[in-house]
C-alpha cells in the first residue's frame, strides 16, 4: 500500500507518495511518468515524511537551500539509481550536463564511455522531482532540454535557485520573464 499527500507550490500542484516511512514519489500534477513508481492501492494520509517534505518544499520555494533531506526511497533499476545518486550531488544553484553524468558513471563502472542518451532516460524517470534535482541537468553547451514537469517549471526551479538562467537559455529565449 502507498500513501499520498499534496502540496500547492507557487509553480503548480504537487503529489507526494510514500511507502509509509519514506518518500518514494514527488511529481507535478500531470507531469510525464506521473506516479510511475506507485503500484497498487493508494490512500490519502498525513504522515511524518510528508510533513517533513512539505517543510523542505516551503524552505526551497522561499528561495533558500534546505539543510536537511526527507527520508527517500528511490525505486528503479541499478543504472537509474546510480544516475539519481549523481543528481543528489549537484549543488544547489548549479547545473551538470548529461555528458558529465555519463563520464562519472563510466568512471564508476570502469568502462571507457557511457551513453548520455541513456543517462537522459534515467534522469527523465526520476520519481522524486525537485528534491532529487533532475532540473539541474542541462544539455551540451548549457542548452535547456526536456524536463518531465515541463521546461517552464525547469526554468522556474533554476530561477528559484538563483541560477543564471539567461546564460543557459539558448533555445527558449521568449520564456524568460
Automatic annotation (TrEMBL):
Q: Which InterPro entries match?
A: MethylDNA_cys_MeTrfase_AS (IPR001497), MethylDNA_cys_MeTrfase_DNA-bd (IPR014048), MethylDNA_cys_MeTrfase_DNAb (IPR036217), MethylG_MeTrfase_N (IPR008332), MGMT (IPR023546), MGMT_N_sf (IPR036631), WH-like_DNA-bd_sf (IPR036388)
Tell me its EC number(s), please.
2.1.1.63
Where along the chain is the active site annotated?
A: 134 (nucleophile)
Per the record's keyword annotation, is Signal included, yes or no? no
Domain spans labelled Methylated-DNA-[protein]-cysteine S-methyltransferase DNA binding = 78-162
What does the record's miscellaneous section state? This enzyme catalyzes only one turnover and therefore is not strictly catalytic. According to one definition, an enzyme is a biocatalyst that acts repeatedly and over many reaction cycles.
The family classification in the record reads: Belongs to the MGMT family.
**Protein name as it appears in the record:** Methylated-DNA--protein-cysteine methyltransferase
What is the organism field in this record? Ruminococcoides intestinale
Amino acid at each position: 500500500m502507498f500513501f499520498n499527500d499534496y502540496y500547492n507550490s507557487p509553480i503548480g500542484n504537487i503529489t507526494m507518495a510514500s511507502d509509509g516511512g519514506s518518500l518514494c514519489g514527488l511529481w507535478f500534477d500531470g507531469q510525464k511518468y506521473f506516479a510511475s513508481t506507485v503500484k497498487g492501492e493508494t490512500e490519502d494520509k498525513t504522515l511524518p515524511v510528508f510533513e517533513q517534505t512539505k517543510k523542505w518544499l516551503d524552505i526551497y520555494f522561499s528561495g533558500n537551500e534546505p539543510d536537511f533531506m526527507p527520508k527517500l526511497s528511490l525505486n528503479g533499476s541499478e543504472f537509474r539509481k546510480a544516475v539519481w545518486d549523481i543528481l543528489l550531488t549537484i549543488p544547489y544553484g548549479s547545473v551538470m550536463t548529461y555528458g558529465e553524468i555519463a563520464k562519472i558513471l563510466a568512471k564508476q563502472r570502469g568502462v571507457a564511455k557511457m551513453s548520455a542518451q541513456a543517462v537522459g532516460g534515467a534522469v527523465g524517470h526520476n520519481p522524486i522531482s525537485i528534491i532529487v534535482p533532475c532540473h539541474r541537468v542541462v544539455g551540451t553547451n548549457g542548452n535547456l532540454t526536456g524536463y518531465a514537469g515541463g521546461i517552464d517549471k525547469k526554468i522556474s526551479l533554476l530561477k528559484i535557485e538563483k541560477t543564471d538562467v539567461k546564460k543557459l537559455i539558448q533555445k527558449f529565449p521568449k520564456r524568460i520573464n
